[in-house]
Each structure stands twice: as C-alpha cells, then as structure tokens.
Transcriptional regulator
Amino acid sequence: MLKALAHPIRLQIVHGLLTEGCHNVRCIENRTGVSQSCTSQHLQRLRSAGIVEAERVGNEVYYRVSSQRMARLMAALTGEEAAVYVL
C-alpha cells in the first residue's frame, strides 16, 4: 500500500477522496491539475493495490477508499485526526 501511495499525485487523490468528497475522474482531474489519462492511470494503480474501489453509475465511474483501515493509514500519514476520514 505504501508503495502505491508513494507518488504525490496518488497521495493527493486518496486524500481528496477522503476529505473533499471528490469521487469521479473529472472532479479528481480538476483537483489535481493533471490530465484525465494521467488521473485514470493513477486510479488504476490505486485500484490494483486495493486502496480504492470503483463503481459505475451510468456513464460515470465513482471512486471511494476501500476500507476504514486505509482511512486510518491516511490519517497517520497526513498527521490529521482519524475522525476527518469518515467513509
């Protein structure tokens, strides 16, 4: 998990999913400032590592952090309160 989170963009994506409620590629793309294809590649890496899950609703794919364990790990990495990371 930590290896997948080692990239600053992936860390930013997971942090955004947990704290900002940003859940689709377009929103994540706007928050990170990277292209849609780059965002999708990072999300695929996070999915492969089991950090995020995806759910298709119509034409949109929505992402969320896969577990409370991951939320606690992010709290530890960022030094924030675990209560911020409500799934």
Summary: Residues 2-84 form a domain with the Arc Repressor Mutant, subunit A fold (CATH 1.10.10.10). The radius of gyration is 12 Å. Confidence is low (pLDDT under 50) at residues 83-87. The longest helix spans residues 36-48.
